[in-house]
Structures are given as C-alpha cells and as structure tokens.
Task: inverse folding
C-alpha cells in the first residue's frame, strides 16, 4: 500500500518513506486525478455536442473592473486572516501537517495571533488602494462563451459541493460520532460518502448549467461517462491508500475458477493509511500495520467494474440518439454495481422491509429504479440527441 507519495517514491526508487513527500496523500492525489480525468472527458463531450449543434454557446457580460467597496475590504480581510492563520499554524507544526494534511486543513486548528497582524496590514493596504481609485463605475466586457469553456466552473462546483455532500452523508451514517463531537467530526478530514457528493454536486451543477443557457438533459448525457471515470479513479485512491473502504473478512479458499492473483481474492492492505490490523514485524515507518485476517479488496473490484462501465458508456454515447437515455443508463449501471458490491463491504446497515441494507444500497436501489424509469421515459419521448 502507498498511504502517501513518499511510499510511491520508495517503491520506485528505494528511498526511505516518511519524508517531505508525505504531505501528498495517495487518496487526495487520486481524488484530484479523478476530477481531472472527469473534466477532460466532459470537455471532449461538450465540444463534440457543440460541433454537432446540440449545445450552443452564449454571450455573457464579464466584469473587468469593479471599484473596491467596504464589503469587499471586509470579505478579503477575513479571507486573508483565515488563510494566514492556517499557513502560520502549518509552519509551526510542519510534522503534524506532513503526517495528516487534511486533519489540519479541514479543522479549526489555526494560529490567529500572527494572522491578525497580517490581516490588519492587508486591510490598511486595501483602504489605501480604495482612496486612490479614480473610477467609481463597474466596467463590463461582452464575451462569447462556448459550452466547453464552462468546464472549469463545472468542475469547481462539482468538486466543492461533492466534498460537502460527501461529508454530510458521512455524518448521517455516523450520527453517534457527530453528536459526541459535532465540530470535530464536521471539520475532520476523514469520512467521505461518495453518493452524498454525487447527489449534491448534481443538484448544483444542474442549477449552474440551467442558468448559463445550456440544455441540462444534454449536459447530463455529456457527463455520464465522466462521472463513472471519476468514480473509477477515485476507487484507485481507496485501494492504493488502504483508506478503510475494503470488504469483509475473506478466509475462504480461492476457488479454482478464480484465475486472478491471490491478492485479488483476499488482501491484507499492508501499510494501510489507517494503521489498522496487526503490526508488521521489523517495520519502523509511520504506517506499519496490515489486516489479519485478509479481506475482499472491494475497491479493486469497483475499479474494474467502473472502468468497464465507463467504456460501455463511452461507446454508447455516439450510438444512442435520444437525449437523456445515456445518463439514465449510467444511473442503472452505477446502481447495479454498487448494490451488489455492498454485500462484500463493511458499512452500517439499516432495516428496510425486513432486509438489512446499507445506506449506499438504498440509494443504489433508487438509482436503479430511476434509471429504468428514465430510460423508458426518454426513449419514448425521443428528444433528438
């Protein structure tokens, strides 16, 4: 396992891990790659759909000059205070930050004293700048924005609200821990639930593209392969870091029909980022634990399944000419994959109609039902795509 970048470098070069490169966590690295890969596929699809006349750009007024107001000074000063409070704390506690950046960044840990001085000096500078302003009117410039030019905004909104939604759904899954320490749990860097991020990000991106004159149904089709690709790459981060998204204990003998490596049947996640399991003998690194007994490597299974579904959706995108159908095929396949993989995963269970199901399975069932209904509805509606 590679809990952080230093372990990846160690496996390639042999350089001892737990150094300055430890600040880059493997899960965070793959999360970033997930957004980049999703953004790239979405960019290609938005460009293709515009070239075919399915999506159109629009003229938009862009602010190129705005005079400073008192509210601007207050907001910018507060932002500077927060940023420098974090920055100074990181400088003072470098080893803590290198070991677990998320626990520092997404927490209330800060050094307000030095940051207050910086914020005051910055506010003085802004007031001085305001006093030198010669123009009091906002200036605009009209630009033509192509659909593909929206990709940065779409990705930023999806990333921001995806993380917020993931955290909120994680809290719902772990209410007892949240009640005990609400502030600590909310600002903790751990605990993200993929479906929570997906739902909130979808709502906010849908709202954004509607406001910008893009046809939401066609954009939904455009992002379907990208969503699955992002999920695939994100699960790579789960597997390679050993972040706890593994499956249940697997002490079964590997069957003869299972032609893949033994580690694909049962895996011990040595050097996992959570330091769970039994300590590895003669290991002096920061991450020296492995699971015993071994478990089903469910993130690896999801990487394979999600990659396959991405390929299917990418092939179908030019074969299906009815708007909305591709997106709901994504919903159906995503729901199917997650529903069945959950039987091998460790998650809290809820009783639904006398069945013990996880939160993800309940949402997966809704996705499957919605997917089937959406495919039928939009196939019958036959909106050209």
Result:
């Amino acid at each position: 396992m590679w809990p952080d970048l230093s372990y990846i470098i160690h496996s390639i070069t042999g350089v001892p891990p737990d150094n300055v490169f430890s600040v880059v966590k493997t899960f965070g690295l793959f999360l970033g790659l997930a957004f980049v890969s999703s953004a790239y596929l979405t960019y290609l699809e938005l460009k293709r759909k515009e070239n075919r006349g399915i999506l159109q750009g629009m003229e938009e007024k862009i602010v190129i000059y705005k005079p400073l107001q008192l509210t601007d000074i207050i907001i910018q000063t507060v932002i500077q205070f927060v940023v420098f409070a974090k920055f100074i704390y990181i400088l003072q506690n470098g080893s803590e930050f290198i070991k677990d950046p998320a626990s520092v960044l997404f927490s209330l840990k800060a050094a307000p004293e030095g940051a207050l001085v910086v914020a005051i000096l910055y506010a003085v500078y802004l007031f001085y700048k305001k006093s030198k302003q010669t123009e009091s009117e906002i200036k605009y410039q009209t630009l033509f924005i192509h659909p593909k030019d929206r990709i940065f905004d779409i990705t930023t909104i999806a990333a921001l609200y995806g993380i917020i939604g993931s955290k909120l759904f994680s809290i719902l899954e772990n209410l007892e821990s949240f009640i005990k320490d609400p502030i600590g749990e909310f600002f903790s860097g751990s605990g993200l639930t993929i479906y929570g991020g997906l739902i909130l990000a979808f709502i906010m991106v849908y709202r954004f593209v509607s406001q910008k004159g893009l046809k939401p149904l066609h954009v939904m089709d455009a992002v379907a392969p990208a969503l699955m690709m992002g999920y695939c790459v994100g699960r790579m981060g789960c597997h390679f870091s050993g972040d706890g998204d593994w499956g249940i204990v697997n002490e079964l003998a590997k069957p003869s029909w299972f032609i893949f490596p033994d580690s694909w049947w049962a895996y011990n996640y040595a050097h996992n980022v959570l330091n769970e399991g039994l300590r590895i003998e003669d290991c002096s690194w920061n991450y020296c634990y492995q699971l015993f007994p071994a478990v089903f490597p469910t993130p690896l299974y999801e990487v394979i399944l999600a990659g396959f579904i991405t390929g299917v959706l990418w092939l179908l995108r030019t074969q299906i000419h009815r708007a909305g159908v591709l997106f709901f095929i994504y919903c159906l396949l995503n729901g199917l994959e997650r529903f069945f993989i959950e039987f091998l995963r460790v998650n809290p269970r809820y009783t639904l109609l006398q069945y013990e199901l996880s939160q993800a399975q309940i949402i997966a069932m809704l996705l499957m039902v919605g997917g089937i209904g959406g495919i039928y509805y939009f196939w019958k509606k036959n909106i050209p795509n």
